[in-house]
Amino acid sequence: MKYAIPTHGFRSVLLLCTFSLLLNSLSSFGQPRLYWTADWESIFSMGKVDAGAQSLKAVVRYAPFFNYTHQMNVDFSPLLGMYTGLGIRNVGLISHYTDDQNQLTKIKERSYALGMPLAFRIGELPDGASFAVGALGELMFAYKRKIFTPQGEKRKIYNWFDDRVNLLNASLLAELRFPKGSYIRFNYYLRDFLNYRGIDESEGVNLPDYGLSSPLFSLSIGVIDDYWNLDIDELESDKPRRTSSAQKSPKANDRQARHSRPAR
Fold first, then answer.
1. 37: which strand partners?
2. How is the chain split into domains, by residue range?
3. How confident is the model at residue 211 (pLDDT cuts 50, 70, 90)?
4. What is the pLDDT of residues 166-184, one digit of tens each?
5. Domain 32-258 - what CATH class?
6. Is pLDDT at 187 greater than 50 in this prediction?
7. HEC states along 31-65?
8. Percentage of the chain with pLDDT > 90?
9. How open is the CA angle 217-227-244, to the nearest 5 degrees?
10. SS3 letters across the chain
11. What's the N-to-C CA distance of the chain in angstroms?
12. Beta strands 154-160; 168-177: pairing state
């Protein structure tokens, strides 16, 4: 006589065991350390837009402004940490189209995005750098498109929560952080950036199949500043004060000795 094992029950038990093991592992690290940081980045992005029979050239887009994230960091140990937060990023793509008369049309599209990252720092490299992996969820709330025609005209569209982009998008991220707070970060978006098809002559160029697909990825360079440090055991004490490295108390120096290279 054969007995069928309920698949959903087995998965629930497996998930519960995994979660218990994770909690036990984290509790073995002792008292976690909580602190906030400011993340400033400059973004180099590129997206290859498919326009069917018309060939487009993807151009690197540089966005040094405005890209800021307020991060909350948790260090479980000097070798394991995580961070989340809330921020605004300027993401987009640029395409160049050259017609049969060798006339160039430039199409620039971007959106400001409200984003929430979740990443885990894994270990330390020999020189004190660390590596992090995770994901970033974003809400595209301010879309703009500019089309520069061969005749020197500029056609511009600007809308809040425009459905020409996928309003909700997520990207996978990988990040290499250096000891003094600078980093290099790579993001690959899981959905197409654009959510429309076709640009007609009235908008400056005739590309009826523009937007068949539009994968997007970005490479960022930036810096992370520590400006608000707080241990978990201080949550019930007085409100923490902003401190600089030159103003740290002996107690703060002792904590720094225990966590000589915190995840940021």
1. 71, 226
2. 32-258
3. very high
4. 999 999 999 999 988 899 9
5. mainly beta
6. yes
7. CCEEEEEEEEEEEEEEECCCECCECEEEECEEECC
8. 62
9. 140
10. CCCCCCHHHHHHHHHHHHHHHHHHHHHCCCCCEEEEEEEEEEEEEEECCCECCECEEEECEEECCCCEEEEEEEEEECCEEEEEEEEEEEEEEEEEEECCCCCEEEEEEEEEEEEEEEEEEEEECCCCCEEEEEEEEEEEEEEEEEEECCCCCEEEEEEECCCCECCEEEEEEEEEECCCCEEEEEEEECCCCECCCCECHHHCCCECCCCCCCCEEEEEEEEEEEEEEEEHHHCCCCCCCCCCHHHCCHHHHHHHHHCCCCCC
11. 57
12. unpaired
Distance in angstroms (rounded) separating the CA atoms of residues 221 and 167: 25
Backbone angles phi, psi at 150, to 5 degrees: -60, -25
Provide the token pair at 71.
């991060």
Q: What pLDDT digit, counting tens, does each position of 147-160 carry?
A: 999 999 999 999 99
Distances from the Cα of 222 to the Cα of 23, 67, 244, angstroms? 32, 10, 20
Tell me the residue length of the chain: 264
